[in-house]
Amino acid sequence: MTTTLQVSIADALTAVTPDGLPFRFTAYDGSATGPEDSPIHMHLASERGLSYVLTAPGDLGMVRAYVMGDLEITGVHPGNPYELMRMMLNQFHFHRPTPSEALRIVRGLGWNHLKPPPPPPQEHLPKWRRTFEGLRHSRTRDRVAIHHHYDVSNTFYEWILGPSMTYTCAVYPTADATLEQAQAEKYDLVARKLDLRPGQRLLDIGCGWGGMVRHAARKYGCRRPRRSGRPRRSSAKVWRTAPRFASWTTATWPSATSTRSAPSA
Hints:
The protein is an alpha/beta fold. The chain folds into three domains: 9-114, no CATH class; 127-161, no CATH class; 179-261, Rossmann fold. It is built from eleven helices and seven strands. It has helices spanning 9-16, 47-55, 59-67, 82-90, 99-109, 127-136, 139-150, 154-161, 179-194, 211-220, 236-241, and strands at 24-27, 32-33, 41-44, 71-74, 202-205, 226-227, 260-261. The strands form two sheets. It has a four-stranded mixed sheet with strand order 2-1-3-4. Helix 2 packs antiparallel against helix 3 (59-67). The longest helix has 16 residues, at 179-194. The N and C termini lie far apart (50 Å). Mean pLDDT is 79; it is low at 231-265.
């Protein structure tokens, strides 16, 4: 059953995007907005999709609608949607409505759409599954799971993460920067924020392969203890490139007054 709307979905979207949309948008109520000749087309296919968007505004509601098939996207490859993501990041400007505007939009779209639909099954396991998984939980089972995911060769991780073996988000200084340059920029951004100086000690908890502390040691002259949740991750490459910083088992932990911590790298 489809509810008759007093405010069209396209009009509601236009009200909160006064600069217009960079792609074509259509909805199940027949309304549309955005450039007709855009190669990228987003279609809101159902009332459930509208409820997802209204009850979890932002990325979460849109992702839930997309996962459930209520938000259809054409013009980009499903495995490579970055052109649309760039549009939404750089050209999609959301205007927060005033309380009176928000009331008008919600009233026009229908109060019934403020009832949150169940989250997608991929996001929420059924109770029986959660109970069963909990009963199976044990140190032995966790050890097997960790071994399966992490005890693979460093070559494998280097293929995925790049030569720096960094598994946190990179920071691209320019649009044409390489992954290696972006990873180095991320390290340096953290170091600059911490105002690292020669002789200081950097505590990096969850340091992985030690890329952040190696960068701090090489470029800023820092000493450090570091802690990794999985000591076996310290690859031969790490030990070769920074031998005097590699022995974390004998590190001297800094005092409370001198500790500087960094995000995991």
